[in-house]
Amino acid sequence: MTVRRLAAIGGAALLLTALVAAPAAASGSAARVSWSPCTEEELTGFGCATYEVPLDYDKPHGPTTTIALARRPAGDPAHKIGTIFVNPGGPGGPGRGMVTVADQIVAPDVLARFDIVGFDPRGIGASDPVECFATDAEAEALYARMKIVPISKTDVWSTIRANLEYTKGCVAHAGPLLEHMSTLNVAKDLDRLRQGVGDAKLNYIGYSYGTLIGATYANLFPSKVRAVIIDGNVDPDQRTNHRLANKFERAGGFELVLSAFLRECDKAATSCAFAGHARARFDRLRDRLRQGPAEVPDLGGTVTIDDLTNFITGSMYDVAQWPDTAAVLRIAYDTIFGGATASTLAARELPKSRPGPGWSPDAYSYNGNDSFLAVNCADAPLPRNPALYPAIGAAFEKAHPTFGRAEAFSEVACANWPRIAERYHGPWNNRTARTVLVVNPTYDPATRYDFAVRMTRELGNARLLTLDGYGHTTRYSACITGWYSRYLLRGALPPAGTRCAQDLAPFPAS
Question: Residue 411: which residues within 8 A CB-CB, separation 6 or more?
Answer without folding.
Answer: 247, 373, 376, 377, 382
